[in-house]
Structures are given as C-alpha cells and as structure tokens.
C-alpha cells in the first residue's frame, strides 16, 4: 500500500482529448485538496514533461518520444479509445498499468447512434434534401421498421451495450461481433459472435454500427468487399474510429446502390476535406466527430481520474484498465 505518489498532468494542447490548461489546473487543485499524499504537477512543455516523468508514479496524457519513467505505475490515457501509436513498444514493455476513459461517453455516443438510426428509420435524409430544394413530396422515402430489423454492432463494448439498451423499446434483434465474445456477451445484446464470423453476419443485418477502436488489426477492416456483403437496404453507422473504414470504398458502395445510407461521425481524414465526394451524397448524414459531446464531460473525466488516484494511494486495483497494451484495448 502506497500513501504518497507523484502524479504528472501533461498539458498537451495538440494531443487529442486533453482538456484545456485551465481545466487541468482546476483538476490539480481539487486533487491536491482531496488527497493529502498526492503531489500533483502540471507539465506543459516537452522538456518539462520529460523532466517530471523521471520520478513520477503516475501520469495523465500522451507520453512524448524519449520518455523515461522508471517509477511509473499508472498511465491514464485521455481518450476512451487511444489512437494507433499511443501504445508504443516502449509502453507495451513497461510494467505501468494503463487505464482509459471508456464509459465516460457511453450514453452520449449511444444517443448519437440512436439519432442516426431514427433519422434513417423515418427517411429524414430524403426529406432534408427535399426541404433544401423546397419540394413537398410525401410517401417516397424508404422506412426502416426497427421492430423487424437486425442491428449488428461491430465491437461489443460499453457503447454497444448502452445503445442496445436504448433500442429495447423499438424491438429489433441486436447482435454484435467482437474479438472477445466470451467477455462481452450479455445485457441487451441478444448474441455476440466472434470477429471471425463478421462477414457471415453482415448479409443478415439491416443496420451495421461500427464501434471498434483503431488498432493495427482494425485499420481498414471495412472496405468494398465487406460493404458488398451487406443488404442494399442496409444502413451503415460509424461512431468508432474513422481509420477502421475505407471511406472511398464506402462512397463507392453508396453511389452504386449497394447500401441505403450511412451516418458518419468519424473519418479516415479529419477534418473531412471540403472537396470529398461524401459531402454531396443525399443518403449520408455527417457530423464532425461530436458523438461524445454532452453535459459534464470534464467533470466525468475528473471523477474517473480522481477515483483511480484514490485506488493508487490505497494500493487497490485501478478501474478501466487496458487489458492488452499490445492490442491497445
């Protein structure tokens, strides 16, 4: 059991999901007030970060190149799904436990899934197009009747389970494909299949929702061959990571009528270039990587960090641990 620890908050404005410095300063003040044995340091420059990490017990943020932290026991990633490159070989080999922010955004992202689903379910992309053109035409948009539908989640993590709970009143069959089906089954998801069964499940789904993190294995996992397996009436939604989908292949499939539509919050290039042809497709809804947005996000992040600070000082197991630092989840 450890009663003291040094915790370094790495203020990195260019790193994804790092709060503004004033937020980190508020976190630091609250952590110092709550935990007598916790020395909290904010490091802003790379030089400061490298210096402070040299005797740190814990850190929050993205480790810079050349880091050396022999005492590090805990690294808190600032994202729910850290991007490819976060888990360097050096970090994978280090004994430090890595935790992430999973669970913080589940309800907001699941709500975003529902917004896309219901929009396509009632043909809203069609009517939005008509509204722009001042055309009053009824009864022409395809309707997705959720009670008669199968919704397939690729990835059966917290977002998928939360969205499945939200879907229950509409009555669809909800299934998932996951790399670890034995530990993700249950709840409102009717069945979880192994990742090796994904291509056999795609032709059976009316809605496919991508939720997996970006790893070396998941990069580009959905391309033209996979979209060709889906029903021409199916809707595809991506609220996971843009690099898991070959966007140009998705656009090709949509233009060829191989899919009914797509709701996209993430892209393989962000910001999405203004000249990309996906912008012009009438059966696509686009949001700019905002599925996680909602009230109290900074407070939720702080509470997760503070909870693990308490556990670190008490010698208790940390929560939201990344099980495999090589796979990244």
What is the compact description of this entry?
With 329 residues, the chain is of the alpha/beta class. It has helices spanning 21-34, 46-53, 89-93, 106-121, 124-132, 158-167, 181-184, 198-201, 224-229, 247-255, 297-314; strands at residues 5-10, 38-43, 58-60, 74-76, 97-99, 150-154, 173-178, 191-194, 207-210, 235-238, 261-264, 284-286.
Give a verbal description of the structure.
- The structure is a single chain.
- About 30% of the residues lie in helices and about 15% in strands.
- The chain has about 325 residues and is of the alpha/beta class.
- The protein has a seven-stranded parallel β-sheet.
- The longest helix has 18 residues, at about 295-315.
Order of helices and strands: EHEHEEHEHHEHEHEHEHEHEEH
Question: Which shape, going by the Cα principal axes?
Answer: elongated
CATH class type of the largest domain = Alpha Beta
The biggest sheet amounts to:
7 strands, parallel
Give the % helix. Answer: 25-40%
Class of secondary structure makeup? alpha/beta
Share of β-strand residues: 15-25%
Low-confidence regions = none
CATH superfamily of the largest domain: NAD(P)-binding Rossmann-like Domain
Count of separate DSSP helical elements: 11
Span between termini = 27 Å
Using only C-alpha atoms, the radius of gyration works out to 22 Å
